[in-house]
C-alpha cells in the first residue's frame, strides 16, 4: 500500500517520506527547501548523492539531493547563491489549486512557499510557488513546480531556475552524459564564455561546470560500472547545467568530502539563458522527471523509453 508519511528527519527537521508500498522504492523530501534528499529504486538503492558532510542547519543549504534554485540560479545577481527557496521552510499545500489530481495512485506530496517580508527586501515581489513531488511506478520521480506572480502592484518579475540534481554514480571517470552533443554552452570556469560541445558525449577528467543551452528534453547519464542509466526528462526548462567540482573545489567545500567528487555528478534541468518573466497572475510550470534504466544503450539515438 502506497504511503505518504511525515517524519522527523536530521536535526529535528521535518520530512515527508513517499513509499510505493509494492517495492523498496521511496523518496524523501524535507520541508526545509522542499528539498528531495533521497530517491531509492525497487532494490532500495539510493540514487541521489547526499554528502556525508551535508548540513541540516537552516539557513545553510543541504549539500546533495535536489536543491531548488529560485528565483536566481548561481551567484551572479543580487540574491544569495542559487536564490533563497532552498533556504526556507516550506508548508504542506492542502489546496494545490487546480493541479489535476494525479491519474495514478502513485504517492505524492504538495508543498507551497510564499515569500516573507524579509524576502521582499531582496526580491520585492509576491508569488506562490507550488511544488508536487510524486513517486511513480518503477521509481519514476517527478517534480512539478508552478510559480505564480501574485503582485498586486501590476509589476512583472523575472527569475532564473534550476533543479540542482546530484546523481549518485560509481566512479565519475566512468560516467558519460549523452544528449548534449553539438550544443552551445556557457563555461562557468571561463567567465561564462560561450563554446560549442565537440564531444560525442560528456566525460569527466577534471572540474567541469557548464550551462548547456537549448538542451533536448531527454538527457542520459550513463554509469558504466553500475551498468545503469539515469534518464532526465524536462519540460519548461530549456537549459541543462553539468557540474563536477573535482578535487580542488571538493576540498574547498566544508560540507563536501574531499573524495566525494568521485561519486557524484550534477545534471540540472534549468531556465537560465532566457530568464522567465511573469506578469501578475501568470503562472510558469517547470517539470523534471527522473528514471533509471538498465544500460541497454549501445550508442546512436537515445533509445529512452518515453516515461511521460
Ligand atoms: O550548478 C553548478 C554550480 O553553479 C557550481 O558553479 C557550484 O557553485 C555549484 O552550483 C554549487 O553551488 P552551491 O551554492 O550549492 O554551493
UniProtKB/TrEMBL annotation:
Q: Does the keyword Isomerase apply?
A: yes
Instruction: Please name one Pfam family that this protein belongs to.
Output: Aldose_epim
GO annotations of cellular component type = cytoplasm
Q: Which GO terms describe its biological process?
A: carbohydrate metabolic process
Keyword list, A-Z = Isomerase
* Reaction equations catalysed: alpha-D-glucose 6-phosphate = beta-D-glucose 6-phosphate
Gene Ontology molecular function: any one = carbohydrate binding
- Tell me the domain of life: Eukaryota
> Does the keyword Ribonucleoprotein belong to this entry?
no
Gene3D superfamilies (UniProt xref) = 2.70.98.10
Q: What is the enzyme's class at the highest EC level?
A: isomerase
Q: Which residues form the active site?
A: 164, 268
Q: Give the InterPro entries listed for this entry.
A: Aldose_1/G6P_1-epimerase, G6P_1-epimerase, Gal_mutarotase_sf_dom, GH-type_carb-bd
The EC number on file is 5.1.3.15
Q: What is this protein called?
A: glucose-6-phosphate 1-epimerase
**Which species expresses this protein natively?**
Rhynchospora breviuscula
Amino acid at each position: 500500500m502506497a504511503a505518504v508519511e511525515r517524519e522527523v528527519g536530521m536535526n529535528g527537521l521535518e520530512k515527508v517520506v513517499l513509499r510505493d508500498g509494492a517495492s523498496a522504492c521511496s523518496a524523501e523530501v524535507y520541508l526545509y527547501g522542499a528539498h528531495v534528499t533521497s530517491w531509492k529504486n525497487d532494490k532500495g538503492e539510493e540514487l541521489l548523492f547526499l554528502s556525508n558532510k551535508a548540513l541540516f542547519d537552516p539557513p545553510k543549504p543541504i549539500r546533495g539531493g535536489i536543491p531548488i534554485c529560485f528565483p536566481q540560479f548561481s551567484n551572479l545577481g543580487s540574491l544569495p547563491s542559487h536564490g533563497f527557496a532552498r533556504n526556507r521552510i516550506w508548508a504542506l499545500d492542502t489546496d494545490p489549486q487546480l493541479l489535476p489530481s494525479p491519474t495514478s495512485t502513485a504517492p505524492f506530496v504538495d508543498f507551497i512557499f510564499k515569500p516573507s517580508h524579509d524576502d521582499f527586501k531582496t526580491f520585492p515581489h509576491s508569488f506562490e510557488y507550488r511544488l508536487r513531488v510524486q513517486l511513480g511506478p518503477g521509481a519514476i520521480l517527478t517534480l512539478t513546480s508552478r510559480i505564480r506572480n501574485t503582485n498586486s502592484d501590476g509589476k512583472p518579475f523575472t527569475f532564473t531556475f534550476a533543479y540542482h540534481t546530484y546523481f549518485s554514480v560509481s566512479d565519475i571517470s566512468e560516467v558519460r552524459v549523452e544528449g548534449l552533443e553539438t550544443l552551445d554552452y556557457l563555461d562557468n570556469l571561463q567567465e561564462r564564455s560561450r563554446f560549442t560541445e565537440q564531444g560525442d558525449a560528456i566525460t569527466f577528467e577534471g572540474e567541469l561546470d557548464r550551462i548547456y543551452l537549448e538542451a533536448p528534453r531527454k538527457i542520459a547519464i550513463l554509469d558504466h560500472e553500475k551498468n545503469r542509466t539515469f534518464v532526465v526528462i524536462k519540460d519548461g526548462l530549456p537549459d541543462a547545467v553539468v557540474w563536477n567540482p573535482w578535487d580542488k573545489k571538493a576540498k574547498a567545500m566544508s560540507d563536501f568530502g574531499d573524495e566525494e567528487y568521485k561519486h557524484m555528478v550534477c545534471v540540472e534541468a534549468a531556465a537560465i539563458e532566457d530568464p522567465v518573466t511573469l506578469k501578475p497572475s501568470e503562472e510558469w510550470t517547470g517539470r523534471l522527471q527522473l528514471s533509471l534504466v538498465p544500460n541497454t544503450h549501445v550508442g546512436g539515438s537515445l533509445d529512452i523509453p518515453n516515461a511521460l
